[in-house]
Structures are given as C-alpha cells and as structure tokens.
Amino acid sequence: MRIVIYICLRILNLVTKLCRFLTLQMIEVVASMARGPVFLAGELMECLITFTNPMSHLSTSASSEMLAWASAQIHCQFHASENRVALPAQGNKQDVQAESDTVLIPSRGERGQCVLDTPPKILFCDLRLDPGESKTYSYSELVPIDGPPSFRGQSVKYVYKLTIGCQRVNSPIKLLRVPFRVLVLQGMPEPPFPQDEEVSPSNPFLEEEEASRRDARPLERALDMLMATTSRRCPHMFNITNMRGKVAKFCIFKIVYRLGEDIVGTFNFSEGDIPCLQYSVSLQSEEEIQQPYQRRPGQAVSVTGHGRHLESCLHTASSHFSLPIPLNVTPGFSTDIVSLRWRLHFEFVTAREPMEPPTVLQNQSEVTVWSGAEHVDVDTFSWDLPIKVLPTNPALASYMSQFTGTNSINI
C-alpha cells in the first residue's frame, strides 16, 4: 500500500511540474557579432540580440510572454596560476548584493577576477512577445583601449566576454555570454574621431551612412599605421660565429611582423670557416611574470614554441627558411603582472675539424654516391634574435578564431 501511495505522489509531482512548464514557455535569446569575434582595442563592437517567443500562434498552449528587462556589457576576466604568480590579497570586497539572483553581476560564476568592465546598457524594459514574435536589439560599445589583450598563457589568462543579462518577472537573472578576442595595438587613436566631427553639419538623409563611416575611421587609421610599420624593409646582417671561428652570415629583411606573416631569412655558409652540419630555427614566445608578482625569486621565463625549421646543410653554400606566424597567437604586450616577448631561437651543429667536400670530375657521366663520415666531433651552440609581433586586421584573424561570435540561451 505504501508503495502505491509513493508512486501516486511521484506521478502527481511530475504532473505539477509539467503544468508549470506548459504555463511558462521558454524565450530564446540569440546574440550574434556580425563582423566576427575579433576586435582591436578602441574599435566599435556591434552585436545583434534577438528575443523570440518560439510558440506558434496555432498552439493551444500558446500565450504572450513578458521579460522585465535586459542589458549588456563587456568584461575581462583575469586568471593566474597560483604556482607561478603571487597576487596581493584582495580582502573581502564582495558586494553584499552579489549573492542575490536578481542583481546583475556579469562575472558571476566566472573564474578569476574581473579586471575591466564597461557600464551596462539597457536594451529594453517590459518586453512583451506574442506567440511566434521576435524582436532584435542592437548593442554597440567601444572595446576599452586601456585593457590587456586576450591571452591564454602558462601563467596568466585574460578572457573577454560580452554578457547579456535577462530577467522575467519574479524570476532569477539569466546570463548569456559571448566570448570574443581583443587585439591591442599601441598608438590607437583616442577618442576614435575628433570632437569637431561629431558636431559638424551632416545630411539628415545619410545619417546611417555617415555614422558607419565615422565608426570605421579609427579601425582604418589603426590598420594604416600597422601596415606602414610592418611594411618597412631594411636588411639586417649578422655574422654567426663560435669559439672556433665564423660559421655563416645571416640576413633577415625585417624584425617587425604582423600576425599571419611569414618570417624569411637566408644563410650564406660559403663565407664561413667552420663547417655547419645542421641548423634549426624556432619561433618562440617568452611569458615573463613581472618581478613583484613572481612566486619565487629569479623565476624562470615560460617559453612556448610556435613553429620550427630544421635543415642539414653540410657542404651547402646557402640556405633559407620560412616560418609563418600563426593567426591565433597573441602579439607582444606588457602589463603590471606579465609581459610577452617574441624571438627567433637558432641552434647550430658545427664540426670541430674541416671536412673535405666530395670531388666530382668535370666529364664524369656516371652517378657518384658520396657517403658521409661515420664519426664527426661536433660543437653545438644557440642564439636568440628578438623580434616584434604586432596584431593584424581583425577580420583576417576571425577566420582562425576559436570563437564563433554567436551564442544562445533559453530563459
């Protein structure tokens, strides 16, 4: 008898929940960044946010749905490895309202600290959606120019998100987060356009076109400056030597690059006194914690490889390499806590004694097979060449982004 009563109570509980679900239909919220998920600091970010009542008006349970309000804002989350970074104690600074489900806190539930956020912008208040109805709102905000770039290192992470908060009447706030990537370029103009351009007379029939043109100017100026900086070519020559003498002459045409560019260098071994058996070139980034925040004194720098070229070059007069800079890496930057630098790391294997090249007779018609020495005494040494890596056009970086610029939620 008890089992029957228990089963009846369970069925009644499920029926009650089902009735509540049918009386409170879900509203679908979709956020989409039309231009892509990558932006330059100081650039205007635009996002379209659509609210839809998916129930058909033909449905017997269809009814109008109400949303109390919705707002959106940008925030940047900072997370550090406790084994590598010693951060000062924050103390108990949590807002007394932070535990309430009816207070908008965009970083609620996120790891780390919120180091940057923009003022929230209200999208609407008291929105009513009839069955099958949709309404779209446009959110636009300048990406803060004084913030760090998006970065996922071994010790430190900076993550940007657009957070949209929505609330039904007498219900908890629901958060929709859209992650995106920020590239920082030094020298980005601020404000984005001169003050006199805002108050200059304009054609009322072309207001939208003029507004979009003004918004594009800071990005255009930044990209022009970026192209001018990375397009300058001036050959840099280096004599590569070790304790026994000159190994080769190395030439690289520039040391400032954009994301996505190829680093090209050439070696001339004919001018060397020491035979070079093999060389390798690696593209590396160095992540260094600033001294006040190091967990241990003299803490080692974290080095990450992003590509390597290896070549055997015995009896070779000249050689070259080409290393692409990935679009998804972070350009060099520096904050109070961490700095990121870039370099080319060279490694050479040289013979201690001269090695005679194979002799080929001038009139010889048959194929000659030359076998290398079975044992060679060698020396190895390395060399680091600092380079500078800058951002690229954010539209180009969007093609290789891990983010889609779109996300959705049902509330």
Automatic annotation (TrEMBL):
Keyword Signal: yes
Name used for this protein in its record: GP1 homolog, RAB6A GEF complex partner 1
Keyword check for Signal: yes
Domain of life of the native organism: Eukaryota
BP terms from Gene Ontology: extracellular matrix constituent secretion; regulation of cartilage development
Keywords, sorted A to Z: Signal
Segments for region (Disordered): 191-215
Secretion signal, residue range per the UniProt entry: 1-19
